[in-house]
Amino acid sequence: MPLANVLEAIRREASEEAERRLDDARQRAQAIEDEAHVQAERLREQMEAEAAREGAESLRQQVQAARLQALRETRRRREEIFQQAQAEVRQALSTARDEENYPALLEALVAEARTALPDAALARVDPRDAAREPSAEPCLETWGGVELEAADGRIVRNTLEERLRRAEPELRRLAARAMGLV
Q1: Structural domain that includes position 126
Q2: Element (H or E) spanning 123, and its range?
Q3: Where among 56, 74, 94 does a domain terminate?
Q4: Domain co-membership, 67 together with 122
């Protein structure tokens, strides 16, 4: 075989080998590119899922914060309403002495206090009630009522202010019920 034919066969063989290697390289490059696309798509889906989870969590937190704010505002408003009602009750009690039935009310408060502390040695009333309770010291500043003290220091304070203070928990329950909260 002539040398030119041998050289041509080597060149053809080298060209075919180069083409095969080039095809292999292209296939490997395509496989790498395809795998990169798959991984990129997986990563994108993961990132979208994470963003959705974070978005859902953020939304949940925002909803929770809004609920908490609404509860605070409702509680604040309820307290405002209760305080307003209590101020009206205070106003009414502070003028109880001006009412026609006040002498009977004072008598009932004194009797109730004496039942609670029968061995009272000292009674105190507001100076405006001294005429109705002449045996009492007129040194108490009150809307109405009496304070009794036993010789051993025990004290029963049965005044309108004290009764209102003691009634506050029940008044709060009643107000909550009236506002439809219970």
Answers
A1: 100-178
A2: strand 120-124
A3: 94
A4: no
Kindly state whether residues 79 and 110 are assigned to the same domain: no
Cβ contact 161:93 at 8 Å: yes
Per the structure, the count of domains in the chain is 2
User: What string of pLDDT tens digits covers the 182 residues of the chain?
Assistant: 676 666 666 667 766 766 777 677 678 777 877 887 788 788 888 888 888 888 888 888 988 999 999 889 888 888 888 888 899 999 999 999 999 999 999 999 999 999 999 999 999 999 999 999 989 999 999 999 999 999 999 999 999 999 999 999 988 888 877 777 65
Last residue of a domain, one of 94, 109, 129: 94
Claim: this prediction has a pTM higher than 0.70: no
Please state, in angstroms and as integers, the Cα–Cα distance from residue 85 to each residue in 13, 164, 165, following that order. Answer: 106, 12, 14
